Amino acid sequence: MGTTKDNRAMVFNFKPTTTDFLYRATYVGNGGDCGADGVEQLTLNPIYTWDCNDIDAFINDINKTTYSIAYDPWDFPVVAYNNQYTGDTAQRLYISFPDERLGLPSTVWHRYVIDGNAWSNTGPQSAISFSNSGLGLIGYVQPSYRPSADSIFIDNTQDLRIALQGYGIFLSSIMK
């Protein structure tokens, strides 16, 4: 939940076809597309208060995927989750959030890889949070690490990892 009762969102898995999807529902008050939440008492018209769409339409194995959601200080929902990308042999850690968070005029959500490669299992049991200044922190597990497809080294130690967003520091420059 965000700073007001109108800033609400949730994440859930859904299987509309033979493939598992990771979905999000965002509270819109009215005019949503997730299905009726009830009916108006006087008119008996349905009430649609949630807007739904997929975050990731190609979840490889929902039993291995974990996810969490948090609101940043500007009331944008951000989701952290793990999934095996098409062609990979292992899980990666992702985040997803709406384009509006980047100042773009769209309701589309994009996903970004935070950690992982095609051979290391990374990202299960992820939990995301934000500081008051908007810096993100994700805690997660890396069950196995392999640096490359050619490497014979495989570390199966379950490591607790964090992804921490830091401030950018820029030095000023003067041109003559």
What does this structure look like?
This protein has no helices and twelve strands. By secondary structure, it is an all-beta fold. The strands form four sheets. A four-stranded antiparallel sheet has the order 6-7-8-9, with no helix packed on it. It has a three-stranded antiparallel sheet with strand order 1-2-5, with no helix packed on it. Strands 10-11-12 form a three-stranded antiparallel sheet, with no helix packed on it.
- Identify the strand order in the major beta sheet: 6-7-8-9
User: Mind telling me the C-alpha Rg?
Assistant: 19 Å
- The separation of the N and C termini measures 51 Å
Give the proportion of residues in helices.
Answer: under 10%
pLDDT < 50 stretches:
none
Supply the number of helical segments. 0
SSE pattern: EEEEEEEEEEEE
| Major sheet summary line | 4 strands, antiparallel
Shape type? globular
Strand content: 35-45%
Overall average pLDDT: 85
- The overall strand count is 12
> Helix- and strand-based class?
mainly beta
Question: How is this structure best summarized?
Answer:
The protein is mainly beta and 176 residues long.
Helices, strands, pairings?
Blueprint: E1 9-14, E2 20-27, E3 38-39, E4 46-47, E5 50-59, E6 67-71, E7 77-83, E8 92-98, E9 109-115, E10 127-130, E11 136-142, E12 159-164
Antiparallel strand pairs: 1-2, 2-5, 3-4, 6-7, 7-8, 8-9, 10-11, 11-12
